[in-house]
Specification:
By secondary structure, the protein is of the alpha/beta class. About 35% of the residues lie in helices and about 15% in strands. The chain is built from nine helices and eleven strands.
Length: about 325
Amino acid sequence: MQFGFGAPVSGPLSTPDNLARIAIEGEAMGYDYTTISDHVVIPRDIRAKYPYSDTGEFPSRSRGDRHEQLTAVAFVAGKTSRLRLVTSVTVVPHRPVVLQAKMLATIDVLSNGRLTFGIGAGWMKEEFEALGVPPFPERGAVTDEYLDAFRELWTKDDPRFAGRHVKFADILFEPKPVQKPHPPIWVGGESGPALRRTARIGDAWYPIGTNPQHRLDSMKRFEAGVDRLRRLTREAGRDPSKMGLAYRITSWGKSLPNRADGGERRLFSGETADVVADLRTFRDFGVGYVDFNFEGATADAMLANMRRFREDVLAKV
């Protein structure tokens, strides 16, 4: 099992010195990957409901200054040598398809093949409108078509595509990504469309457990989600045993209630030993990747929390 940490791309910890230090020292501690989130702009008035809170309120701490995701990934790549770089997640419709494919291929080449492309269709209608991208209601279809176009550009010597949202031909697209056939695609989301997208094109499923519409906050619920994914993967003509499982943990320990609303034990709640036991259960079930958000008002504080968690929890898994 591999473990990751969230790199700060907003607020005081996202200054060049702080971001570089957190990435470099996280790599030195033995973390396997870092995650970098994606918002291009934050509208002042957000009416869309945030999927990962019970209230639907977008966290106030996420509303300030923020770096562009792929530029930040490239920056972190240049400061590290081993750490994998996970987009967590890229809102696929937010950037023009050929330009986006080129940026991602460039990152993979210049990082020596360390990119993992975490993807989602997006949830914030107001951000779509501000960016002037394809209409919000079409985001699922746009995401699927862009992903097909990415694979065409990344794998074909003479890439050609003629879809509803994407058209290109007679172009040279080089260099290709270092990773073959292309960087791993982790599909975020917990809904039916997200699971079908994972089954059709994903290398791994990458959910968050706190979506109140599709909770995955107990082992019973998570197993049911994976069972559904495996069925859909078989129906898509692919081998479920080759589908990776990743999971994003936004909070853990005593801050969580011990029980999910269905009555089962809530994953990653309780004492340190309980969190270790849940991670071991995940590992034995076949989850290959788990990442965490670490708090800290300063880089020193965040790194201390990362180091303590590495020693007290991850070293015991």
